[in-house]
Automatic annotation (TrEMBL), chain B:
Top-rank taxon, per record: Bacteria
Family of this protein: Belongs to the sulfur carrier protein TusA family.
Species this chain originates from: Caldilinea aerophila
Name under which the protein is recorded: UPF0033 domain-containing protein
InterPro entries: TusA-like, TusA-like_sf
UPF0033 domain residues: 14-38
């Protein structure tokens, strides 16, 4: 082995072959195996950590609650989170664009008539006083320049917030899919849970 | 914030005075994605909650950083809250 001129270049190569021939190559191999195993575990763990996602179940059909839901959704979307909202039971009223009565059974018609036709007809959860509470809330919001629920819903849709209607409760409550906003998807409990399980934040409103 | 606001080079100003939660944040987000990486957005707000909102946004999002925040009295007596947000990704 030449020592003088190509010392540094051949040094590494020589060290490797020396190690191999001496049987001291084993620790290096073991280390490499352990590193490979660690990398595999890390990859698996990374795939299981919660993502930058926020999921919500909107169960309530009250103006104040629905407002809170959409404020959180738009705030989260503004912060770069992936937002999904699942509307079920009374929350479905928030997604309704128009009320339909034809083709429905009597119980479904009654349910439709007694539910708010859309967000503009929603009452507040407390102190509603047959609708006066909702009117007052809207007035106070206007005075303080707070964005209305209707505008917030459109804003959320614009920002890519996923809105899903619960197929089962929609059917039970006799709401026709054509009554809801066209940009709303439909799903079941697993659709909600699949998103919720990988979200860092999940809320029930 | 350790940066002195007067030393920051601002590339765009966003006036959201009079708008309340969540609009300052939403509009800031819409504005920042239109900037290039490294550019700075100056947000002028009258919303007191915006101070913590912008801190929270910078902490949670990985594409922006908050360079500085400051307060100053506005023309009509209302306090103005200024936020200097830089796009990092």
């Amino acid at each position: 082995m030449s020592i003088a001129t190509t010392e540094t270049a051949t040094m590494e190569v020589d060290t490797q072959s020396t190690l191999a021939t001496n049987g001291v190559g084993d620790p290096v191999q073991t280390l490499e195996q352990r590193i490979a195993a660690l990398e595999a575990r890390l990859a698996e763990m990374e795939s299981r950590i919660p993502k930058d996602k926020v999921t919500m179940v909107v169960f309530s059909g009250d103006l104040d609650r629905v407002l809170a839901a959409f404020i959180i959704a738009s705030g989260a979307a503004a912060m770069g989170q992936d937002v999904s909202m699942f509307f079920t039971f009374w929350g479905l009223n928030a997604l309704r664009k128009q009320r339909k009565l034809q083709g429905k059974k009597l119980t479904e018609k009654m349910m439709a008539l007694m539910s708010p036709a859309d967000t503009k007809h929603m009452g507040v959860s407390k102190l509603n006083f047959f609708g006066a509470g909702a009117v007052m809330l809207r007035q106070m919001m206007k005075e303080k320049n707070v964005t209305s629920v209707e505008e917030l819903i459109d804003l959320c849709a614009e920002m890519g917030v996923k809105m899903v209607s619960c197929e089962m409760s929609r059917d039970v409550m006799g709401i026709d899919p054509s009554e809801l906003r066209p940009d709303v998807e439909t799903g079941g409990v697993a659709a909600y849970l699949a998103d919720a399980l990988e979200s860092r934040v999940t809320l029930f409103i | 914030m350790t940066t002195d606001p007067t030393t920051i080079q601002v590339h765009q100003e966003l006036d959201v005075r009079g708008l309340n939660c969540p609009m300052p944040l939403v509009k800031a987000r819409q504005a920042i994605v239109k900037l290039d990486v490294g550019q700075v957005l100056k947000v002028i707000s009258t919303d007191r909650g915006s101070v913590k909102d912008f801190q929270g946004w910078a902490k949670a999002a990985n594409n922006v950083t908050l360079l500085a925040q400051s307060e100053e009295p506005g023309p009509d007596g209302k306090t103005l809250y200024l936020h200097y947000v830089q796009r990092t990704k």
